[in-house]
Design brief:
The chain has about 150 residues and is α+β, with helices and mostly antiparallel strands. Helix content is about 40%, strand content about 25%. It starts with a helix and ends in an 8-residue tail after the last helix.
Length: about 150
Amino acid sequence: MTGEADRRPGIASGERGAIAVADRVVAKIASHVAREALSRFPESVGHVPAGRRTPRVTTSVRRAPERDTAGRDAESAGGRQAALGEARLRITVELGYPSDIGAQCAAVRREVTERLRTWSGIDVSHLVVSVGRLHSAHTRHAGEERVR
């Protein structure tokens, strides 16, 4: 009877196996990080109702291709670990108005990309930040009526 260790003698027991990060985990991390990034803009946060501050995230994660042990050693020697996969994300946020919309979207993009790599080992290959709704101090008290 041949075991896994006999079939792949070049791979140590601690190196065998695989790590997979689910799409919903990546979406939760991205949503959390986006909410944190937007909280640094007080001029916008005050206008958005509390129930609308959580960004909506859609994602698809593609697992990284299998690598041999020589590739892993070369990447770790360079100081950067190999990514576990890559994600494509779409984040929809609701912002206060007036505010610096471009700066807020750039902060979400930058922080989500950096922290997904750090926290989950996933590279972001494509990230779209879209503004789904703007909330103004003038429209907050108007209920569901439109401002003309």
